């Protein structure tokens, strides 16, 4: 059994490699993942993998040069906190759960933080914090709303 830090590093490696089988295998059947900004709740391996696919597809389709970089990881007991950065240039349509954003040609850097409760090499609970306002601002969408 790997330690929790190594477990989460492997999860992020699988995410960047789009290894959805490994991602699904890392999640407990009764796992709940909450996106704190939207309030959306995802359940089990299917929900967690759905989020990973959506983020990976958005990056590959809308931002082919996009990648996620692990910035900081710390663990204490069963709790693992990971801060990461996503970077990319939006050269394609970005499909979000709120709608589609046409290509802007703008570069985006977004910082995010996830908190996982890990037990027996499975994520039992997760909370994801993503600054969607920063994404909208960098894509010029807040300027459109103000104008």
Write the layout of secondary structure elements.
Elements: H1 4-16, H2 20-25, E1 27-35, E2 41-43, H3 44-62, E3 67-76, E4 79-89, E5 94-96, E6 99-101, E7 107-119, E8 122-130, H4 132-138, H5 141-146
Parallel strand pairs: 1-8
Antiparallel strand pairs: 1-2, 3-4, 4-7, 5-6, 7-8
State the gist of this model.
The chain is α+β, with helices and mostly antiparallel strands.
The CATH architecture term is Roll
The biggest beta sheet reads: 6 strands, mixed
Please state roughly what percent of the residues sit in beta strands, choosing from under 5%, 5-15%, 15-25%, 25-35%, 35-45% or over 45%.
35-45%
Total helix count?
A: 5
Shape: elongated
Low-confidence sequence ranges: none
C-alpha Rg, in Å? Answer: 15 Å
Helix content: 25-40%
The CATH class label is: Alpha Beta
Strand runs, count: 8
Terminus-to-terminus distance: 55 Å
User: What structural category arises from helix and sheet content?
Assistant: alpha+beta
- As for the number of domains, it is 1
Order of helices and strands: HHEEHEEEEEEHH
The CATH topology label is Nuclear Transport Factor 2, Chain: A
Roughly what is the average pLDDT, rounded to an integer?
86
Strand order of the largest sheet: 2-1-8-7-4-3
């Amino acid at each position: 059994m790997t330690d929790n830090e190594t477990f989460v590093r492997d999860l992020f490696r699988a995410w960047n490699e789009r290894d959805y089988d490994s991602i699904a295998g890392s999640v407990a059947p009764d796992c709940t993942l909450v996106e704190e900004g939207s309030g959306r709740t995802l359940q089990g391996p299917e929900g967690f993998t759905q989020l990973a696919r959506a983020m990976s597809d958005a990056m590959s389709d809308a931002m082919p040069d996009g990648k996620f970089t692990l910035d900081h990881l710390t663990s204490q007991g069963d709790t693992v906190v990971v801060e990461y950065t996503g970077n990319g240039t939006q050269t394609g349509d970005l499909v979000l759960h709120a709608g589609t954003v046409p290509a802007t040609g703008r570069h985006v850097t977004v910082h995010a933080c996830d908190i996982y409760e890990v037990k027996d090499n499975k994520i039992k609970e997760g909370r994801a914090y993503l600054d969607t306002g920063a994404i909208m601002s960098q894509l010029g969408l807040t300027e459109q709303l103000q104008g």
